[in-house]
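Changelog excerpt

This revision adds worked examples to the README so contributors can see how folded entries look when concatenated. The first example is reproduced verbatim below.
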Amino acid sequence: MYGYNRVDARPRTFSEWYPPMSHENEYHGSMIKMLELIWGEGYMAPGGPGNVAKLLRGLETRDKRILDIGCGIGGPALEMARTHEAEVVGIDLEAPLIERATNAAVDKGLADRCSFRRVDAGALPFADQSFDIVVTSGAITQTENKPELFAECFRVLNPGGHLTSYEWMKSSEPYSDDMHYWFKMEGLTYALETLDEYRIHLAGCGFVDIDVQDSSSWYRIEVEREYDLMKGELYPRMVELMGRKDADHFVENWRAMAIVCRQGEMRQGYSRGRSPA
């Protein structure tokens, strides 16, 4: 337990610990620098191009239309366009991220195959049956009304199209103080659920061929490697990029994340479902 003196034994809800956030500009400059340093240029979730390949494994992508929900600064969407030869539309709630992604598409000569737009939370601004594949990597993690988002993904998919996602999840146990401390260090909106709950949501929306896979063992190793790098050889570069105060914050953030991953509280998983043909 880190930094908490509990005065009562009643379990508190997430909203009692942390008031609701607006999702507006949660990803500030120092955080983006940190995520790119540890996860690669353009990436705000772990795994890099290898994670994109895993999300799209077994799917026909050439000249297919892909919607990337929660595209961030565009790394995964650009990889889908460049390597997987898809036509990609990326959407996100935060305007500064969309601006970065749009500029990156132009700089890399991919603006003809990869476009980005800011959206509001809620219904997706696309017609029914607009995409062949919907991809998310972290967007569902931060969405409280998951059934609504899954239903919107189902609506915009062509018959036979696929939803494929990589998300951060939780165990079935109540949050520990270690978990609450990590949430505080992150400073982001999280609405974590279990893999079983994802399966139920997908089925409830009409998806078939549902597949959910726990990938926690992979990131449990990876987060330890990242933490060692951040407190070691990457630390001087972190200080140079964002100053000592923010660098120290992120080292502590990763220490806290390594603990909850090691304990099996913070988990990662892949989910996939198909719209019936």
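The second example, added in the same revision:
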Amino acid sequence: MERKVLLVDDEPGILRVLGISLADRGFQVFTASSGEEALDVFRSRKPEIVLTDIKMPGIDGIQLLQRIKEEDPETEVIMITGHGDMELAIQSLKYEASDFITKPIHDEALDIALKRAGERIGFRNQLREYTLNLEKLVEEKTRKLIEAERLAVTGQTVAGLAHAIKNITSGLTGGMYVLEKGVELDNKTYLSQGWQMIKGNVRKIKAMALDLLNYAKEREPQWQVCDPNLPAEEVVDLMRSQAAERGVSLKTDLASDLPKTLLDPEGIHKVLLNLVTNAIDACTDLSCTNKRGEVTVRTSRRQDSAVQYHVIDNGCGMDEETRSKVFQRFFSTKGSQGTGLGLMIAKKIVDEHGGVIDLVSEKDKGTAVAVTLPQRDRASP
């Protein structure tokens, strides 16, 4: 493809002779006899190279160079100067002229200047193409990486869900076996035990299905200005009798000076209910503790937060490996008794609030979970 060249000079003879010379070199040549005309041609023809005389009436070569570079910095501008205009030629280089040649114009000097300009254009085109290809490559690799990550997450989710379902079906199978033995032996104790096992596992299936739906669906927090102690009080009142039945002391330590806060009380209720249930379970796990269980629900406020909720227990605690997995999909510290969905949902709700959930735990000493919610503008949740 022919490169476009704009030749600018106020001398008709130079325009004619140099125009023919450039055309013989394979360029598509446009000419202008003034800076004003040159700007019009430049804007309409978009030449890649401009050769312009430095000294012209009206808009001179330096001014034309500056205007062209403002409109298209990648245009190669070669200055044509007389022997007495070397200072102007050097000045043009400061304004990013590609090169300059002197009158009378020699073919060798013209060829060198045009070659340099062509090499610069070619280099920029190669760089642009390389950058474009690189962007496409990065985009493609990123897309493939995201797809791979999605597949990996899907695989982990399916594996975790399959494990949870397997635990429940094992419980159902055991319950059916005991129930069948009760029917076979006409043993009411076996009948009752088997039926209770089946009912318990059916409840697990229902709870897991609801948890999965809650985790999967997009949920907008129902913002309300309320007492941040209220969700904590409700959860403790709800769980107090269950904790007592299992020999666990459930206490509160609620800050009395908390201002009303913008939050989703139903969502925070779910978070605290899950954390308190886990804490009670940790205190009653006979495999790792034989002391009287204690669970404390505490509220406080940091200077940079709206409210902090703390659920502290003296139960089994966790080792480092377990601590690193507690918020993973379907990971449970309860073995076959848990699905691992509870903490996933709790973290999701805290994330929806823009908050942070932290966990500190030590094996055989207990666990402390802190939920920190940020301050929110009441006018715009």
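Reviewer comment on example two: Residues 107-185 form the longest helix (79 residues). The domain at 4-105 is CATH 3.40.50.2300 (Rossmann fold).
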